[in-house]
Design a protein that fits this description.
The chain is of the alpha+beta class and about 525 residues long. The protein has 19 helices and 15 strands. It has helices at about 1-35, 80-90, 100-115, 125-135, 140-155, 160-170, 180-185, 195-205, 220-235, 240-250, 265-280, 280-285, 300-320, 365-375, 420-425, 425-435, 440-450, 470-480, 515-525; strands spanning about 50-55, 60-65, 70, 175, 290-295, 325-330, 335-340, 380-385, 390, 400-405, 415, 485, 490-495, 500-505, 510. A 5-stranded mixed sheet has the order 2-1-5-13-14. A two-stranded parallel ribbon has the order 3-4. A hairpin with a 5-residue loop joins strand 13 and strand 14. Helix 4 (about 125-135) packs across helix 5 (about 140-155), helix 14 packs across helix 16 (about 425-435) and helix 14 packs across helix 17. The longest helix is centred in the N-terminal third of the chain and has 33 residues, at about 1-35. One of its GO terms (biological process) is regulation of cell shape.
Length: about 525
């Protein structure tokens, strides 16, 4: 009887085992049918940040939506970092075919001994499969799909291809995806330049990017770095001497790289971003990995921001203003080298350098005098600075159409030379000069020099009554400096796609709009102002 009972029990266990086996087989078949095609990896193009560079090679900004990533080939990733990741995440990466059964057993034993998870069993290939195709939900189906995908990926791709994909995909904290973005974020350098010590620190972030971030938990980050170094020693990837040296090396972090749009030349960056999205669309700008080389000079920009900050602080209360703007343009190339659109970008993102139109006042007078010189009226010509009433178009505020302007100081000087009138910014002689030159001729002179805003054809044009932008005024004055040559202002010299193919290359186009002698005479007259 006992024998019979055992036989019956054995049969029940066998039946249960077969049912479980059949269920597992059915589940595997079901998952296999639902697996994504790993061939898609060949044509996979990850979302990549667009990067803006200054003219002196500094990164100004990165444009991205969800993921800040810059893809680089394996050859441009430090071997130290490659080894650090392999030692920590998958020591038998070069030996297994997607699944590491020994690693799973070893991790299980170690986790059981410690009573908590201290080591994972997923290979680099499994992690890549999960990152590319699956969710992070911890279910049996997901783990099975992950394992099957890993096997397929290993059959299709080389170890180098798998490692390159993984190192460009892995999340490393503070919205940095991939080692190139993380290397810049933490150390302000390229992935190829990482030292052993730096590599160990970043590799240690994979298991807990936010938990071990040196910007949030420096002590935890250091302990994790030592753990990685010990793993590299354990697997003979470094010598003891290298390990000791890496452990005591002082790391120079770059917390400034945590800054977002708005920290460095924010108004300029916003201006460029607007133009980029107009030309290429948001999808390309935020996901396409463009490399945009701008005209901005970081040292000039820093000086410009300091000037505006000091000017608003020192003069603002005295003259009751809280905003100011500044643009610096190279007149020979049209390159915008500095742009400040306001006193504080975070308080007001309105760019007063390009979006705002204001009455330029007496700074508009040189365009009137330019039209006069073009007609042969020379600096020594005598103009009358005397009280005068002009007939103008009647308005609601001036129904009789009579206008009797005065000079800034309320004084009249009688006969003066044209040079003196410009130097002292005298209103009456300048208005009379505009009458003599012709309003339309003055408008055309300003327009061909770069003023694009609508100019009111009235005598008040002399006093800068028509609103223009600072960008227009700065660019137009550049014509004087460049001997009568007009060059369109620009912010970008070159744009490349993620593969380095040049999409746009700026070429400076010169156009003579003033006779060289006219420009020279105007410069000579304006010297007296200074």
């Amino acid at each position: 009887m006992p024998k019979k009972r055992r036989s019956k029990t054995e049969r029940m266990f066998m039946l249960a085992f077969l049912v479980m086996l059949a269920g597992a087989a059915g589940l595997t078949v079901q998952v296999l049918h639902q697996l994504p095609d790993v061939e898609k990896i060949s044509s996979y193009i990850p979302s990549e940040s667009t990067i803006l560079y200054s003219s002196d090679g500094k990164i100004l900004a990165r444009f991205h939506r969800e993921e800040n990533r810059q893809v680089v080939p394996l050859s441009k990733i430090s071997v130290h970092f490659q080894n650090a990741v392999i030692a920590t995440e998958d020591p038998r990466f070069r030996e297994h075919h997607g699944l590491d059964f020994l690693g799973i057993i070893r991790a299980g034993v170690k986790n059981f001994a410690y009573g908590r998870v201290v080591e994972g069993g997923s290979t680099i290939t499994q992690q890549l499969a999960r990152n590319l195709f699956l969710t992070k939900k911890k279910t049996l189906l997901r783990k099975l799909a992950e394992a099957l995908l890993a096997l397929r990926i290993e059959r299709r791709y080389t170890k180098e291809e798998i490692l390159e994909l993984y190192l460009n995909q892995v999340y490393l904290g503070h919205n940095a995806y991939g080692i190139e973005s993380a290397s810049n974020l933490y150390f302000g350098k390229r992935a190829a330049e990482l030292t052993l010590s730096e590599s160990a620190m970043i590799a240690g972030l994979i298991r807990g990017p936010e938990l071990y971030s040196p910007y949030r938990n420096l002590k935890g980050s250091k302990l994790r770095q030592i753990f990685v170094i010990n793993k590299m020693l354990e697997h003979n990837l470094i010598t003891e001497r290298e390990g000791r040296s890496a452990a005591i090396e002082s790391l120079n972090f770059s917390p400034k790289n945590l800054r977002s749009l708005g920290e460095i030349a924010p108004y300029f960056i916003g201006f460029v971003l607007h133009d980029l999205t107009e030309k290429y669309g948001e999808e390309m700008v935020y996901h396409g990995g463009l490399r945009v080389y701008t005209t901005l000079d970081s040292s000039r920009q820093a000086a410009a921001e300091a000037v505006i900050s000091r000017f608003v602080s020192e003069e603002g209360k005295k003259y009751n203003f809280s905003q100011a703007a500044l643009i610096s343009i190279d007149p020979r190339t049209g390159y915008i080298q500095a742009m400040v659109g306001g006193a504080n970008f975070f308080e007001s993102k309105f760019n007063r350098a390009v979006q705002s139109r204001r009455q330029p006042g007496s700074s508009f007078k040189p365009f009137i005098y330019t039209a006069a010189v073009e007609q042969g009226i020379m600096p020594g010509t005598v103009l009358m600075d005397t009280p005068t009433t002009f007939s103008v178009w009647p308005t609601r505020w001036n129904p009789d159409g009579k206008w009797s302007p005065k000079n800034f100081d309320g004084k009249f000087r009688g006969p003066v030379t044209m040079r003196y009138a410009l130097e002292k910014s005298l209103n009456l002689p300048s208005i009379k000069l505009l009458e003599r030159v012709g309003i339309q001729n003055a408008v055309e002179a300003a327009q061909k020099m770069g003023i694009q805003s609508r100019l009111e054809p009235a005598l008040s044009l002399t006093l800068g009554a028509s609103e223009v932008s600072l960008l227009e005024m700065t660019s137009a004055f550049g014509v004087f400096a460049d001997g009568g040559i007009r060059v369109e202002p620009t912010t970008v010299t070159k744009i490349e796609n993620r593969d380095g193919v040049v999409l746009y290359s700026h070429s400076v186009t010169e156009k003579r709009v003033l006779d060289e002698n006219v420009a020279a005479i105007m410069i000579d007259m304006m010297r007296g102002v200074l």
